[in-house]
Amino acid sequence: MVATPELLDPNFHRVVVLMLEHNEDGALGLVLNRPRLIGGAAAVPQWEDRLAAPGYLHTGGPVSEDSIIG
């Protein structure tokens, strides 16, 4: 899903979202074009050997920002 220029909400302005799930309970997606500055190994050390370079995290949101999909 690609946000239109008219969408001014800072959570979704100019983002590309990969929708993983959408149903009557809500939606789940990953923002693809805003990698986090923190590396995945710093956030989840046990994943360090599974991360492809450069190993940055991609965020969803603005709900459940403390969750990780692996």
UniProtKB/TrEMBL annotation:
GO terms for cellular component: cytosol. InterPro entries: AlgH-like. Gene3D superfamilies: VC0467-like. Transmembrane segments: none annotated. Pfam families: DUF179. This is Uncharacterized protein. It comes from marine metagenome. The lineage of its organism: unclassified sequences, metagenomes, ecological metagenomes.
